[in-house]
Amino acid sequence: MARFFPLTVTDIRPETRDAVAVTLQPRAEDAEAFKFVQGQYLTFRRDFDGEELRRSYSVCAGLDDGILQVGIKRVDGGAFSTWANEQLKVGDVLDAMPPMGRFHAPLDPASERHYLGFAGGSGITPLLSIIKTVLTREPKARFTLVYANRQISSIMFRETIEDLKSTFVQRLSVIHVLESEAQDIDLFTGRVDAQKMDALFEHWIDAGDVDLAFICGPEPMMLTIAQSLRDHGLDHTRIKFELFASGQPGRATKKAVSIDAARAGAQTEATVIIDGSSRSFKMPKEGQSLLDAALASDIDAPFACKAGVCSTCRAKVLEGEAEMAVNHALEDYEVRQGYVLTCQCMPLTDKIVVSYDA
Amino acid sequence: MHDDTPTGDAAGHDGDHMDIADYLAKGGVLTSPANVPPRYRGELLRLMASFVDSQLAGSAGFADTINDAPGIVARISAARITLEKADHAGRVLEIMGEFGADTDRYARHHPWAARLSRDADLGAARAGADMRLSVFHYPLQGWVDAVVMNLLMGQASVVQMSELSRLSYAPLAEVFRSIAPRESRHAELAVAGVRAILTGESGGGTLADVRESLEYWQPRVAMTFGKSGSDRFDRLARLGLRHRTNDELAQDWRDRMTAVLAGLNLT
To answer: With an 8 Å Cβ cutoff, are A77 and B12 in contact?
Structure first.
């Protein structure tokens, strides 16, 4: 189960016009829990107008920086990132889960590996942590970073990266690709597409010399670069991914409640939405779970443990009300948003609509 | 690390995001519970539960055979398989935990050593209250039977690992890639175990016992690859959770078994 701990903000440094690096301090007793591995992220929670939002931001500090620091880029209309960029101040306390994520490779001080990293925009944050760490902990390792941004002014951690280049002159090389700003070399202007990747491999990077690649950015960039890496001989076991997805909603939506006048009927008219189609059936209010009733109606609903433990059968109640016999897998905030474990779910109202797509 | 809105701009490129279904269909990978869509989540958890339940049931079944083992080497092999299958379950369960599953309760929620009768006819259907593959509902009968079952299931696991190591949830694919070499090793231990029985080196049974167990387990292990032409395959393939069809995996397994059995002069 997720556990949150208080972190005190000890520093906020503007990185670009719309991004900040936030340094955080756990309580002494939580220090162990917040020991991170390079490339991991923290998940924060905060209430906005009574709705809890959770957002994850990658640690940008290296293991030897002695601090816990994350990068937060402001997104238009994004409640959490806007608040963090505009209102967060030193001394504030944020709730965060301990570091998570597997965007890293085990460190080996004897390693002479050549790493290749691709970052799109704020995708630099975990890569910065990785670069600092491997160049420090693996004295013979080399790192080539290809960093895509729209323009110079939107480059996060530009100075930090320049400093790192000076410190590790022989071992760190950085290629900035700017989408809408001309540079001396044409290759470094425009989007990172298949042709640009081919050209990079032809003129700047020896693919045969690369041991491990890291990619962090949005979906199209991940696809393009992964494909190109495969075309140039790096199979999937040598590519590490961290997706900065667009899929999550900006604002938790209020639980849609329309409580029928709760008549004491024994039957419920249940509607189940799955894979975009909806199916209705009648089921008893007691003695059978919503999941079992759906399965009995030949609906291919997902489930595994049927014991309220694994959360495979999670769905959202869109209309009506239900109660769960046991719940060991959903957190309070998910329940408040209307999520139920359908294997444990008995309808309370005469009509109920649940969606496995929500 | 994640965007804050549906029209997010994490990379500093407007309109540079794409529909997650498109992304997956094109071979994209997902990397954390936060970027997994609801239906993907359900299928992924189901897949993980099936693996965890099968490994826990397999480990529990093998635990009993430790005392059937005819010698020290055999005991160690059986103990090692028991240990490592439980460890594999634990590694995948940890990822289920990141999605909210209560991992402690999960590991305890079912009597993993429970078996149905030897002549139950389950086909490929799941039975009982957990998600183990049907083959793990049949009881083992002594040392030879356990080793032969492991010979067949070991190769099936090698085939399954090659499939699972490519799936689109990167943290899980990595766990499977770390497990794969050990599953291969279990398959090798089974080959060595059968060879020791056949040469009389280990004792514990005869050629006739081996053939009898092969006959019993072969069709049951074949069922683990699922039905031919399953309609679930298309949906899972679109999500990047499957790549080769049930029939292709089953054929791969048959080819491997042909070679293994030929190597043991059992054809």
So the answer is: no
Radius of gyration of chain B (CA): 20
Tokens 């609906």 locate to A299
Question: Which residues, listed in sequence order, are joined to residue A278 by a DSSP beta bridge?
Answer: A273
Provide the CA A179 distance to its chain's centre, in angstroms: 24
- Residue B122: count other Cβ atoms within 10 Å of its Cβ: 16
- Strand order across the A5-16 sheet: A51-58, A41-48, A93-96, A5-16, A19-26, A68-73
**Is A314 buried (19+), middle (13-18) or exposed (0-12) by CB count in 10 A?**
buried
Query: Among all residues of chain B, which has the CA nearest to that of A330?
Result: B100
Given pLDDT bands bounded at 50, 70 and 90, which one contains residue A248?
Answer: very low
Architecture of the CATH domain B38-263: Up-down Bundle (1.20)
Q: Quick check: ipTM above 0.85?
A: no
Find the CB nearest A312 among B11, B13, B49.
B49
Which residues in B lie closer than 8 A to residue A302 (C-beta atoms)? 39, 42-43, 45-46
CB contact under 8 A, A148 and B98: no
Q: Distances in Å between the alpha carbon of A326 and those of A219, A333, A351, B46, B210?
A: 37, 16, 22, 19, 47
- Condensed to tens digits (0 to 9), the pLDDT of residues B9-60 reads 333 333 467 888 899 999 999 999 988 999 999 999 999 999 999 999 999 9
Of the partner residues B5, B42, B109, the one whose CB lies closest to the CB of residue A305:
B109
The domains of chain A, with CATH numbers, are 5-96 (2.40.30.10), 114-243 (3.40.50.80), 267-355 (3.10.20.30)
Which chain A residues are closer than 8 Å to B20 by Cβ? 219, 245-247
DSSP string, B182-201: HHHHHHHHHHHHHHHHHTTS
